[in-house]
Design a protein that fits this description.
The protein has helices at about 300, 310-315, and strands at about 5, 10-15, 30-35, 40-45, 50-55, 60-65, 70-75, 85, 90-95, 100-105, 125-130, 135-140, 145-150, 155-160, 160, 170, 170-175, 185, 190-195, 200-205, 210-220, 225-230, 245-250, 255-260, 275-280, 290, 315-320. It is mostly beta strands. The strands form 7 sheets. The chain has a 5-stranded antiparallel sheet with strand order 1-2-27-26-25, with no helix packed on it. A 4-stranded antiparallel sheet has the order 3-4-5-6, with no helix packed on it. A 4-stranded antiparallel sheet has the order 7-8-9-10, with no helix packed on it. Strand 8 and strand 9 (about 90-95) form a beta hairpin. Keywords: Glycoprotein, Lyase, Repeat, Signal.
Length: about 325
């Protein structure tokens, strides 16, 4: 029987074997996911076909990005169904149509800024848009910075530096905005989400998280909620400690936990378990599509244990179907 996660209004059924790919195809790590106005699911992954498009039942529609993307990392979709594809392997953000036509490139492919220089980009990680269409980029692994751009890609301002104080970052991994223009940043290795106004002024932070990695704002203007994907332990010494994830947490606009899905007994490939939540999106019915980097993260989670073939094939993409009351 498929597992059911969560409680009350936040119960989700795990959809088994969701992705139906062409014969011989593998997704490998799924870095991020987005859903368009037709409930088509865009799967930004590190396999041979970087962008795989599925319908909401998991049927294959098309692919694109072969030869274009170096290493998939972040994916955002706007109200006009434009995709913002963040490639940390070649230090760029590309705005694309849903059939893969590149409309805008921010950053210089294969030309990273100096490490921790604060200049864009050095292994950028994700994007989000302001209500005016301005582009925020989290930057990421080789920087500790958020950059703000005009809709046509001109740099407006930047903020952040390495550290643990408010406004400082230790792997700025994901970014989201709400309808009022607040900016939410998953500060992964500081175990928190930081909240800023649209100009980068620090407002508050959400704690009691474990390596927050994926971040999605949903629920509308009046009562936005957030789904946060948390990685599990990354060290040998705490690999088998319970209650640290990997898991999903659902919080309100103040960061107060509403529900938590999974993670009590660590990672796994069985129904109801997670490997390494890395990117997520919701469709019009409230179903969750979760991308996981289970291949990259396998050794950190399982040591020398052999990795099942299903992890590389399709297991790094999961669908959690909302259960109606």
């Amino acid at each position: 029987m498929p597992a059911i996660l969560g409680t009350g209004e936040h119960r989700y059924r795990v959809v088994e074997n969701f992705a139906k790919l062409p014969d011989g195809w593998q997704l490998s790590d799924v870095a991020s996911v987005a859903v368009d106005s037709k409930d088509h699911v865009y799967v930004f992954n590190r396999g041979e076909h970087p962008m795989v498009v599925l319908d909401r039942e998991g049927n294959f529609l098309r692919s694109f990005g072969e030869g274009l993307f170096s290493r998939a990392h972040g994916l955002h979709i706007d109200a006009d169904d434009n995709l913002y594809c963040t490639d940390d392997g070649d230090h760029t953000v590309r705005k694309c149509t849903t059939d893969g036509k590149v409309l805008l490139t921010i950053g210089i492919p294969k030309k990273p800024a100096p490490f921790m220089s604060g200049e864009p980009f050095h292994r950028c990680t994700h994007t989000a848009l302001s209500p005016k269409g301005e582009i925020y980029v989290s930057d990421g692994y080789g920087n500790a910075r958020v950059h703000k751009y005009t809709p046509d890609g001109k740099l407006m301002k930047s903020w952040g530096e390495p550290g643990t104080d408010p406004g400082q970052f230790n792997i700025v991994h994901n970014i989201a905005t709400d309808a009022d223009g607040w900016v939410y940043v998953a500060d992964r290795e500081n175990h928190r989400v930081q909240v800023f106004d649209g100009e980068g002024k620090y407002e508050t932070q959400w704690n009691n998280l474990h390596r927050p990695c994926a971040l999605c704002c949903c629920g509308g203007r009046k009562s936005p909620t957030f789904v946060i994907g948390e990685l599990g332990p990354g060290l040998d010494v705490n690999r088998h400690v319970p209650n640290l994830g990997p898991r999903l947490s659902i919080v309100d606009a103040k960061g107060r936990r509403i529900a938590r899905l999974g993670g009590e007994k660590g990672p796994g490939v069985s129904s109801g378990k997670f490997l390494a939540p890395h990117g997520l999106a919701l469709d019009s019915r409230g179903d969750i599509y979760l991308g996981e980097v289970g291949v990259t993260n396998w050794k950190a989670s399982f040591g020398d244990q052999d990795m099942p073939a299903e992890v590389r094939a399709t297991r790094c993409l999961q669908k959690l179907e909302r259960v109606s009351e």
